[in-house]
Amino acid sequence: MEFNKELASKITLKVKEKNILLTFNDGATKIMEIGELIDVAIWSENHKLLVTLKNGQVRLYHDLINFEII
């Protein structure tokens, strides 16, 4: 599931320690396991998932698994 404008408009994000709950408009929820304590998770301007960790690292997720450190 590649993150894009359509998906970002249909998903609400909620941080739970080391996981992000992706709740779709239809009520379905998917858990995204990050493996590190999360400070903030938001949609970026290009509709990718921007995750700031408690250790200060910032990751840009393109899908549920693939990310780059920025």
What is the CATH class designation?
A: Mainly Beta
CATH superfamily membership, which one? Pleckstrin-homology domain (PH domain)/Phosphotyrosine-binding domain (PTB)
* Shape estimate: globular
Mean of pLDDT: 97
What is the spatial order of strands in the main beta sheet?
4-5-6-7
Low-confidence stretches: none
What structural category characterises the helix and strand content? mainly beta
**SS elements, strand count:** 7
Q: How many angstroms separate the termini?
A: 21 Å
Mind summarizing the main beta sheet?
4 strands, antiparallel
Roughly how much helix do the residues carry, as a percent range? under 10%
Compute the number of helices. 1
Radius of gyration: 11 Å
CATH architecture: Roll
SSE ordering: HEEEEEEE
Instruction: Assign the CATH topology.
Output: PH-domain like
Percent of sequence in beta strands:
over 45%
What keyword list fits this structure?
70 residues; mainly beta; PH-domain like; four-stranded antiparallel beta sheet; three-stranded antiparallel beta sheet; 1 helix; 7 strands; 9% helix; 50% strand
